[in-house]
Amino acid sequence: MTEATIHLGDITHLINPPGPHDHKYSRGVVGLVVGSDDFPGAAVLATSAALHAGVGMARVLTDKSVQSLVLSSTPEAVLVPGKVDAVVVGSGIPEHAVGAAIERLHTLPIANSTPVIVDAGALTRARDIPGAKILTPHAGELDRLATSLGIVSESTRDCAVAVASSLGVVVYLKGHKSLICTPEKVAYELPEAPHWLASAGTGDVLAGIMGAVCAGQQGSLVDSNSLALWAAAAGLIHSAAAERASVRLGEGEPGPLLASELAREVSAVIARLAQS
User: Fold this and answer.
1) The three-state (H, E, C) secondary structure of the chain, written as one string
2) What predicted TM-score, i.e. pTM, was given to this entire model?
3) Which residues pair with residue 89 across a beta bridge?
4) Each residue of 44-91: pLDDT tens digit?
5) CA 38: distance to chain centroid?
6) Positive/negative CA dihedral, 73, 43, 49, 107
7) What's the number of CA atoms in the CB half-sphere (13 Å) around residue 251?
8) End-to-end distance of the chain based on CA atoms, in angstroms?
9) Does residue 1 register a pLDDT over 60?
10) pLDDT tens profile 176-213
């Protein structure tokens, strides 16, 4: 298996600042099938992160009880189906509610080449989800997914590749050094992320960033190598935003961060990349 080292400076070509003729659709539209009565904050965090990452529009399909919370936090969000260039599904959705989420997913025009980020409760239903998929499990979720597929591996690294190969997807294994695997190999191992990211909601922010990055690549070839690169880019942006949030909230020293503050710092990271 081969892997590449990747840093923020390697992904600047993926950040496309708008020009004078751009509009919300040309900048990319992300669909977010996220949040639930049990975990409403996930919808708020994923939506905020996607918008702060520079996507042209965020379509949020969620429970009625969550919609007002999303709009009060991000009134820019759109709550009806329509055109999408990438989709996030599963963040904040428990397994017992995934069926309803998949029904919402089918109201979106998802092609085989549409990037779809599969997170949290939706992971076990990955086979039922259309699109070109990136799965984003943490180690525990990966173990459960591997068990459901009859996969036994000696290492977490091998397990991630085996799951990617079995399902024909990209796997973004979340951790202090996240791994991004294609069906053929480990494509990227990211630099160590700030440890203060070990808190609730930060994975929802990552999902929103990833959806925005993928939506911004409309017109590009979509294959496992491209998806792995876009996923890696989202992870690097996530870590850079975490460093900023941690130091700002710690008044100059790394300290505890809130996922909501993490999402807000994404804009500054994108701005820096756009100028590079």
Assistant:
1) CCCECCCHHHCHHHCCCCCCCCCCCCCCEEEEECCCCCCCHHHHHHHHHHHHCCCCEEEECCCHHHHHHHHHHCCCCECCCCCCCEEEECCCCCHHHHHHHHHHHCCCCCCCCCEEEECHHHHHHHHHCCCEEEECCEHHHHHHHHHHCCCCCCCHHHHHHHHHHHHCCEEEEECCCCEEECCCCEEEECCCCCHHHCCCCHHHHHHHHHHHHHHCCCCCCCCHHHHHHHHHHHHHHHHHHHHHHHHHHCCCCCCCCCHHHHHHHHHHHHHHHHCC
2) 0.96
3) 33, 118
4) 999 999 999 999 999 999 999 999 999 999 999 999 999 999 999 999
5) 20
6) negative
7) 0
8) 31
9) no
10) 899 999 998 888 999 999 999 999 999 999 999 999 99
Which structure tokens are listed for 41?
């904050």
